[in-house]
Hints:
This protein is of the alpha+beta class. Helices cover about 15% and strands about 40% of the residues.
Amino acid sequence: MIQANATNNSAFDNFGEVKASSNYIHAVSELNGFKKDDRIAVTDVVACPPQVYNGKIEDVFSDGLAQVSFDYELTPAADRNIKNNGRVNLHWAVHA
Length: 96
């Protein structure tokens, strides 16, 4: 006769449960070497010729995006090309 294991297996106890912290986008102190007040340069590669925009990081978020204050106002096209919901993807940024 085969008996079922009476111990609880935590991997299956919470099957299908999504922890809020895993999906919650929040501000972080540092991400991939970028932190608040860092100077960065972001390239708009869609523009012809490509344009570089400099700015300062205001906040860094856990999803890899950052709120950036640029040194001057972006054109509407540049704003569309380098921002996602008002935030910049740090994957395309370099330290200035």
